[in-house]
Structures are given as structure tokens and as C-alpha cells.
Amino acid sequence: MLKKLLQISLLILATFSFALTTQAADLTGYAWSSNIGWISMGNNGQNYGVELNGNNLSGYAWSSNIGWVNFNNINFTGFARAISPNANGSSGWDGQIKLGNGTSYGVTKSGNNLTGFAWGDEVVGWVDFKRVRVDNGLSVTACNAIAVGPDLDFSASVSGGTPGYTYHWTINGTPIAPTANNPYQFANYDEGISYVASVYVEDSAGLQSNVCNTGYGNPPDDSEPTIEKVIGKDRMEINSQPLSSPAVSSSAQFRLSVPLSVGSATLRINHPAAGLSGADVTCRLARTPYAGSTSQFSSCADPITINEGGSNLTLYLTTRVARPVQVLNDNNPYAVTISVDDCSAPNSCSDTATFDYRVGTVNPI
After folding, report:
1. Which CATH class is domain 226-357?
2. Surface-to-core class of residue 307, CB atoms within 10 Å of its CB (0-12 exposed, 13-18 middle, 19+ buried)
3. Does the predicted TM-score (pTM) go above 0.85?
């Protein structure tokens, strides 16, 4: 009898522990069908939404064309179903949208995002889920570094998510092996060196938090922002365009490091075509690659302020040179220079990165 009670107790404890370590995550964003348009996953303060718990889905999404879509009690190989399939006048449609067949197509979770396609016969067609994000509230709310004897303790405060956290630290530009230890102990630090650190957390559900930046020590008086080209990107990558094209665009990727003591830096872009008569030279600087829209471009002559301290911030520069710029179409390389500083006078305390390119060709990278 005692043995039986012990087995039951262990079963209850195992069930209770599982309940403690699992948490449903909200889906946010939109899925897209070229036939019916956007399907909203809700949440983010809305009074409806779809949740993901492991690989199991529940809740409702909304489409302005087919109405409510039921995701209850299905997984990534099940069927979501439009509640009113005949609302758009297509009689006979069963409203089913298959999330995947487990082999040739399907929706899956990758980190904090969904990827892949679902299929709805007759009305919906292919549904792309790449704009749907998984959010279980995981967040690093604070991070800190303190000296404890000969060591530095880097710690992070975490909220939300599914317990079983892994901490990903980067200290002075060097990634540290993922660890479950919090704080992370950095042994035998050098008192004469300043330490700049960042951390993000991954939970047991495979979701990632925001990045938190911290540091320790006083940087030397001559500590300034630095800029470096991404390895392999010795030249700007130019779109291969005929000389009759109305514009030539080029892109480059680089890393920017801004000491936490500085807090911000100013970027200035020097393009060789800027001084040519009739040339319209515009630039776009962003955390994401150029996606084809010209609305985010502005004059390259305008200084750009980065209000973000930290090491190895990845940025993308895209330039557009409108015709006439035939004077650039020869075999000489031209340089686009990016300078970064934290001073009021240009180039008085700055670092630079220069990208060489030839207009109208694609250079190896």
C-alpha cells in the first residue's frame, strides 16, 4: 500500500512540475494569403488571439474576408477552420486550412517566429506565416556587473517565458558559451580594462528575450566609438544594372561599437558622387538590409545619430545614385567612407570604414 501511495505521489509531483515549467505563448502579427489578404493572429492587447503551447495551438484569428478562423485543439499538421466559410459567397467550401502535412509543406516554429506555409483549398490558397511572431513575455528587465574579489559577476533579471533559462553573454565583443548560471562569473578580471557586456536569454521553449547592455569600469579618456567592416565585406556590393538604369544602388554591412560611457555617436557618410552636378545621392542606414523601398532614403549629407551604446551593433548602409552619373562609369574604384564620432566637429575624434566599389558591376565579397 505504501509503495502504491508513493507511486501516486510521484505521478502527481511530475504532473505538477510539468505544469510549472510550461507556458502558453501568444502569437502576434499577420499571416498572408494572396487570395484573401491578411489574417490577424490577434493578442497584443486585443480581445482575441491564437496561443501556442509546445506544438499545440488554441484560440481564434481574424480575416476581414473570411471572418473568424478557429485554431483550437490542433497542432502544426492539423486543420484550422474558417467558422463561416460561405461568408464570401463560395458555397460548398469546408473552410479548412491545413497547417502542414509533415513532409512537403507546413508551418513550424523557429526561435521567436513561425515560418512556412499552410494550404487552404479552393478559397484561401497558400498562407505564408513568416510575419507571425511567438511571444511568451520573456524579457531581461535588468542586467548588471559587480566585482566580487578577483572576479566579475555578470547577472540578469528575467521575467516571463518558460523557466529553464540559458544566458547568452557577450563580453568586450567575445561571445561566452551559453550558460544556465546566473550570475555568470568572469574570473580574474583586469582592473585596468573596461568591460562592456550584453546578454539575452533563451527559455526552455526555445524563445529569445530582448538584449540588455551593461558594463564595468571606467573607460580611458580616449575611449571613442569604433566602426569596422564585417569580415569579407571589403567592398560595397553593387546591383548589376545597365548604364541606362535610372539609379545605381549599393549596400554594405558594418559593425559599430559605442562605449556605454559615451551613449551615442554620430555617423557621417562621404559619397564620391555627392559633389557631381545633377547627381541625386541618397542614403539609408538601418538595422535591417535594404528591402526595396526608397521611402526611407535621405540625403547622405545629413549626420545620423545612433542613440545606442554597446559593442558590435550591426548596421546596413545602402546608397542610391540617380543619373546622370556617367562620370563614375569607368574602371576606377570609388570609395564610400563612413565616419563615426562623439564630437561636435567632424573627424576630430572619429574612426572610419571605407568601402571600395566599381559602379555598374557586382564585386566579389
Report:
1. mainly beta
2. exposed
3. no
